[in-house]
Specification:
Blueprint: H1 2-14, E1 21-25, E2 28-31, H2 33-51, E3 56-61, H3 68-84, E4 87-92, H4 99-107, E5 114-119, H5 120-129, H6 137-140, E6 141-150, E7 152-156, H7 165-175, E8 181-184, H8 190-202, E9 207-210, H9 214-222, E10 228-232, H10 233-241, E11 246-250, E12 277-284, H11 289-304, H12 306-314, E13 317-322, H13 324-345
Parallel strand pairs: 3-4, 3-5, 8-9, 8-10
Antiparallel strand pairs: 1-2, 5-12, 6-12, 6-13, 7-10, 7-11
Amino acid sequence: CVRSVRRHRRKSKTAPSFYNSFVISPGISMNFKPLAAAAVLALTSLFQQVHADPQNIKLLVGFPPGGGTDAIARVLADKLREPLGANVVVENRAGAGGQLAAQALKAAPADGSVLFFSHDHTISILPQVVKNPGYNSLNDFIPVVGIATFANGIALAGGTPAKTFNEYIQWVREKGNGRGTIGVPAPASIPEFLVKVIAKKYNMDIQSAPYRGGAPLMADMLGNQVPAGLAGLNDFLENIHAGKFRMVAVIGDKRQAILPDVPTFAELGMSGFEDLAYYGFFAPAGTPKAVIDRYSEAIGKVIAQPDVRDRLTSMGITVVHMPPQRFASHVRTYTQHWEEIIRTNGFAAP
């Protein structure tokens, strides 16, 4: 019996550790090292998808610094630093109505390190009027979260004598000589479509002058280089409050609370322009759902903060938190609405 115990002890010293192998039956064993390693890697990957905090998150913006879109993006980027535990760095890829930024998002890694802050023009409108925009919004991007809706409107420069929309139309009709030029922040945009609708309705020679964003348009209006502009309210508000511009009409099914004296286009007899545009965040296709949900939650908390909400509202937008599924549905519905308008009126990029 003693000899048997000693033999067992000698064998146990040379036998593999329990954690390395397990004897299932005499002559059969299983090595757990590869299985354990694979399990650790899988769990680590899942943990990183949910909790990864890139040192810097790049936030692409398709318009120049100083415009309305850029200003909103920078407010949010600054506030997102805390809930995300990472720096959110705005990178302006201005040009072609946001196409350059959208193309950059398509080429970005789908790991949450790059997001795109955009409005409806780049996502819903351009793919319908540009033959080869370099991206497909439905296939290449994932709606992360919608943060606001906003109205486009027409404003008159300080050197334009008209006080109302009807007075502006009369002034153009009587004076002519280039006074029918209306600046817009991008070609093939809703503002440009509206200019064409106005020209058609009043049977007048009113032309759009496309810019590369709202900031350069505002600069030319301040210098009275262009007598009127049609863009988002957030582009105009600072100069409206300063008494330098006069807003005379807005899109929407009702007047804007921030400009209650300004009539809607529907009130002026131009229906079909009631749907409000949107602002939101997008990620490359293939970004894990856990990452999308995490960003949506963080951004939702930021725009719920009273100081952020007040700041954004003062910029002329209506703050609305639209989580991923709701935002995706909103984008689809809005895109379909404008697809009908574009097809009916034969709009196309210049």
